């Protein structure tokens, strides 16, 4: 459980859909979708990008960490439900500027957790600098490189099992 601090509570309670939309306007969401589509030609994984402005009040006051929410979203979006257990969720909790990557068991067994963590920290640094589109696309590319190395593209293109369009929660 994460200890709530007054600044964290205020960030979450003050986060609006409008603020999320300013940082991730339709053009940025389209660029993220295209980056995912392009990346999936290079590896055998399935990437899902989800972003959430803030936690619900109940989750916030319970001290829910971003990682726990990411695991919940992984399940809700059925990222685990791919034929080859090759789904990867990139989850952004904007109020905390926290990025979490959750990989299904087929990929998790092949990629060192420190490699996922490095991709998360790269995205978080860009977000702290206000470079939301560049951070998201850079993170997708970092995940794609890991997938290409550990889960190469099959000879025949596989069907797209997860939406390429970012999911805004």
TrEMBL record:
Pfam families: TPM_phosphatase. InterPro entries: TPM_dom (IPR007621). It comes from the Bacteria. Residues 26-145 form the TPM domain. This is TPM domain-containing protein. It comes from Crenobacter intestini.
């Amino acid at each position: 459980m994460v200890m709530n601090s007054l600044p964290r509570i205020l960030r979450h309670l003050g986060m609006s859909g409008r603020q999320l939309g300013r940082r991730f306007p339709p053009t940025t969401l389209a660029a993220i979708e295209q980056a995912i589509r392009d990346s999936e030609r290079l590896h055998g994984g399935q990437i899902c990008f989800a972003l959430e402005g803030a936690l619900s009040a109940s989750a916030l006051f319970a001290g829910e960490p971003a990682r726990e929410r990411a695991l919940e979203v992984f399940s809700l979006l059925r990222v685990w439900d791919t034929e080859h257990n090759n789904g990867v969720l990139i989850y952004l909790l904007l109020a905390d500027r926290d990025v979490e990557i959750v990989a299904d068991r087929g990929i998790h067994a092949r990629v060192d957790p420190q490699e996922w963590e490095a991709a998360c920290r790269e995205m978080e640094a860009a977000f702290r600098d206000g470079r939301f589109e560049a951070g998201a696309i850079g993170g997708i590319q970092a995940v794609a490189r890991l997938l290409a190395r550990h889960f190469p593209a099959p000879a025949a293109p596989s069907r797209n099992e997860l939406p390429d369009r970012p999911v805004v929660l």
